[in-house]
Structure formats: structure tokens, C-alpha cells
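Many introductory courses stop at the sequence. We go one step further.
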Amino acid sequence: MPEPTEDTPPATGYVVDAENVAEMARLIRQARTLSEHFGLLPESIAPSPGERILDIGCGSGEWALAMAERFPDSRITGIDISERMIAYARYVAHDRGIVNIQFEVMDACQPVAFSDASFDMINTRFIVGFMSTVLWPRLLRECFRLLRPGGPFCSCEPESLGTTTSLSLAQYNLVITQAMRKAGKCFSPSGEQLGITAVQHRLLQEAGFQHLRQEALGINYSIGMPAHLAMVENFQTFLKLLQPLIVRNGLATQEYIEILYARTLEEMQVDDFCAMAFFQRVWGNKPA
């Protein structure tokens, strides 16, 4: 087997190292921001007592832990490939005294180690970072298998860093999308959009889910808006951690991306900075 080199992508398929401590801290903050703006579930999904709920790609467990606290009669399971994040999630659950939850180390890009119809509901949120266009249909078929008949599946994904008045942030967004495209994670053939929101509905439909619904979501992180500070802190870490991916794919030199990074953070603090990030949530049910 050849030795890994600086051109070798992370073996996990993540664009950022799944065991990175800074990434774990960022994901915790990001999950809280998303839940604050979008809630945990669409209003039409209301878990019943005793339901078994699976969170795929749970990261540090923020969504799963919040669900376990809100629905104490349910049984929540979170899975993630990162041993560090699963260990942290288990610690938090123990520290808070949350007993209706469990976390397991599993690779969602492989067949999941649960039997058919093991869960009453399945959730995924922001898994585009490790899912290739080839793996999306496979994972959704696996979710279909794991759900009981009639059970809901919910998918929430971002489209890009959003639209903005910052030239540097727009350029950073473009180069990130180009890197993601080279990594096989973009459904869009060109431009600065990932394309996932264009195909979410079709992917769920082809996997067999019915009664599909979807909603567009957005976070205004312009200067002076409530989400501005949280998003700046998010990008301060996220954009830094993506630099190896960008350089590895030959899209920029380290010197150039460092300059662009500094300019981006500076422009996000100017008085007239405006930005809006867009997301989409799609959900449906396995036929009863």
C-alpha cells in the first residue's frame, strides 16, 4: 500500500480531519446555531413516546443530545466515524445525566450495523462534507432499510457559504466549491454552488421515500445581525481547516490562501458587510 502524501485526502472522506479538536469545537458551535435558527425538526414531525431515533453523522452529539432532552421517552442513537467526537458526546450525556441516548463509532459510508426497521425516525444534518455524489444514493437506501414502515427521514443540507458583499469571502467560497467538486462531492457541474439542494428531493424520491416536503432556510449573518458573531467564529476555524484541501488540489498556493483568509475575516467586520447563507430541509416517509 502506498504511503500517504500531502496530496492524499483524508481516509474518512471528510474534507476536514474528523478527529481535529478545533473542528469538534466548531461543529458544537455550528450545531447550536443551526438548532437556534431552524429548530430540531420540521413542525410536522412530532416523535411519539418510545420512538427510536437515529442521527447519522452526529459529530459531537449536539442535535442528538438536544432531542434526548426534549423527548425523554424516546431512545436516541447517534453514530459518527470520529472516535474523539463520540467519546465527547458520551461524556456530555453522562455529565448531564441523559440516559435515553447512546453513541456508536460507525462509518456512514459503509453499511450501518443495525438490523432492518431498527428505527422509527432518522435524521441527517450537514453530511455533504463527507458524502460523495456516488455515496448519497447508497446511504439513502440504507436509511430506507433501517426505518420502520411509515417512519420519517429528514435531511438538512447547506448550499454554500452563501451570497455576500465581501469579494474575498465570495472568492473563498468559489475555491472551496472547486475543491469539493474535485473531491467528488458536488452535484453542480460548475460555479460556486454544491448543487445538493437541487437534487435532495430527487435523491429521497429515488430511495423510495414518499410524501416528500421541503423548506428553504436561511441565516442572515450580516454585520449587526444576531448570527454575525457566531458565523464569523465558525468561518475563522472552518476556512483555516479547509486550506490543506484547497492547496492539495492545486487551486491556490499556501501563501495566496493565507492572504485571502486574512482579507476575508477583515471584510466580514466592515460596517457594510452583508451575507446570507441558504439551506434546505427535505423530509418524507417510508411507505407504511
